[in-house]
Give the backbone structure.
Amino acid sequence: MCPRGRTSCIRRVLPPGSNPYAAANASRLLWVRRFVRNNYGSAHDPSELETTQTIQLSTKCRSWRKIIYKIPQTGTSKYQPVGMPMTMFETRLDVTNYSGEAPASAAVRVHHNKANTRGVGVKEVAKDLSGIAPVIPIDRLDTLPLHCQICEGFRAAILRGNLQPGQQVPSSRHLAEDLEVSRFPVLDAYAQLLSEGYFESRVGSGTFVSASLPGQVPNGRRSRSTTGGSRCLSRRSSLLPRFETVPWRHGWGPFGVHQSALDQFPFRAWSKLLAEHGRRPRLHAIHHNDPMGLDRFRDAICSYLRTARAVECDPSQIMIVSGSQQALEITARVLLDPGDPVWIEEPGYQLAQSVLLGAGCRIVPVPVDDEGIDVSAGVNLLPKARAVFVTPSHQYPLGVTMSASRRLRLLDWARDNGAWVVEDDYDSAYRYDTTSVPSLQGIDSDARVIYIGTFSRVIFPSVRVSYIVIPPDLIERFTAVRFSLGIFPSYLFQEVLTDFICTGQFARHIRRMRALYKERRTALVDSVQNTCRDMLEIHGAGAGMHLAVTLPSGFNDAEIASQAAKYGLCLWPLSPCYMNKPRHGFVLGFAATPADQMAVAVHQLWRLLKKQPSQS
Ligand SMILES: Cc1ncc(COP(=O)(O)O)c(C=O)c1O
């Protein structure tokens, strides 16, 4: 574990005349082994790296802010990322590919700007809470003297883990003010706790909870006991699938589906806007504001959608929400009742399924073919569905673009059956081989489409800003539901995004990323075709930030994905996207992996596939 600000430097210089490739390998292995042991103590078997060109580091390295490679022969250094906090997720170091040469030796220095384990993080926060008084119950009618009550209060808080070892406690003066008692009982209590070893004082710094405590509960908090009475949960919550921490959802590495090229994001411009709006907020806007969102932001989104997506709308129809999940949750509450049948794409977006399941809807999986959702199949399964959820621009996960005839057929079906169409247009900004396809909403003549868009793909997911385009006659109901769920959206990113759009930086960023992602997409397709043609069939590579590949029968995608996580590959299995009979394969994100590293990543995937029992 590296304390804050520590720099570790590991260097290995190889003897002259040694084979640079072998040397580089030897150097890398030693380096990884030592690095892991020195800093993280995590299991990472170096033998797994033997023949690979790329070093995948444990995802625990997420808290890095700056990684520096030095290549002694050329005297050059590579800074990655260059002081950009958002790119601290970078965990991939490819020493041999640097400047096209395999180095005879390499040195790496890692600056830990931030502690990387939960425990240390908690302690650091705890230290910064010195100005906050802990909860010390004081009863003036109690016969127990005040200083004893204060002692008791601190002991209990420490033993429960509410105060952490090393955490600074308030000064006696501040605590006396907060408790509204004189300073004497507080001084007496502090002296007592110091003598008992609960506190320690550091000259010039203050008083702290002791780092080694008498009778401390290991790992802090004691679990709460229950009374044994009924602990019934809602039926609605039990309808949701189990929440599982799967490696591919939280990992970072080649093929991660929701990962964009964060190192290419214009953080300098972005942070200027953030600072500007943080420093000088519009005062009437930072109080409660419109449940629909800020007017100027909705104007900007409206102009973008009319231009880029041919969405038929005016700003009054646009509602700002916190992510597509919330958009769908609000939509479901307005349009659907428990038990209502809803068509969803099969395979489809699992998180949409879970919102609809949570709303108590009856889900009808309708197969997707190479024209998008198969409307005739849906009609055969259940013609009277109340709604359909679709991703027509780039079907998730298969990547199909819905054909024009299928779009018209779907809208006709919706009109004839009084059904709603929910269009999730999550990554339409990126299209590579054909011109942009207009939204479904734009060709709907009966105001039946609820359009959902997001900034998660083009900006980054944690911005949590999405929007709904609502048919005019439903605006009031949507507003009422939105108000009941979250009152109104958060302020700051709305302002920042408005300026980002209006100053042309949004359009510029999309243009740059479209070219970059196209190159990465092509590298992925070529590598898969060159290396794994016999095992992987590619689907839907024409748009977005991912494509899908399917496996021959006998392979288990989730099993392979779990194994891949150990090599730093972030493979998303395809089978969980199916509700009925699953196909096995992967959803492969390509946006965050440089084109010159794609072949290496695909080679690792190929090696993994070759190791599977179905291949022996
Ligand atoms: C199908 C689909 N819809 C929507 C989203 C965006 O979700 P959110 O806006 O909640 O980040 C994603 C992920 O980026 C997605 O894959």
The first strand starts at residue 7 and ends at 11. Residues 556 and 584 are 6 Å apart (CA to CA).
